Amino acid sequence: MSAAALPGWLDPELLQWILVVALVVVAYSLFVVLRFVHRLLAKLVLCAALVGLGVSLWVQRADLQDCALTCECSLYGQEVVIPVEQLPEDLRTLDADGEVLCQRGSSILS
């Protein structure tokens, strides 16, 4: 499985805030469904889907908090690489070839 690299402007902290905004949007959507959908079955299915999405987003947000500390990041099963310039200084180390490594991980970051 190949890892996707985060763009330079997107760091794990900003990604956490994006997930919080997505959670707010899901909560608002849940309110709209409860307020305006009148069929019980449709209301139950939509509410279950939105609650499941909200829980999923919250779990991914919690996983991102440990991301920089463990040097192992993934979102919904997709491995994500943090660029070296976004990695905290205390996690950077150089190998014998001069390539930057994550101190607590084994993968080469570039």
Write the layout of secondary structure elements.
Layout: E1 4-5, H1 12-36, H2 40-65, H3 67-70, E2 73-75, E3 78-81, E4 92-94, E5 100-102
Parallel strand pairs: 1-3
Antiparallel strand pairs: 2-3, 4-5
Helix pairs in contact: 1-2
Q: How would you describe the overall organization of this protein?
A:
The chain has helices at residues 12-36, 40-65, 67-70, and strands at residues 4-5, 73-75, 78-81, 92-94, 100-102. It has a 3-stranded mixed beta sheet. A two-stranded antiparallel sheet has the order 4-5. Strand 4 and strand 5 form a beta hairpin. It contains 3 helices and 5 strands, in the order E-H-H-H-E-E-E-E. It has 110 residues and is of the alpha+beta class. Helix content is 50%, strand content 14%. Helix 1 (12-36) packs antiparallel against helix 2.
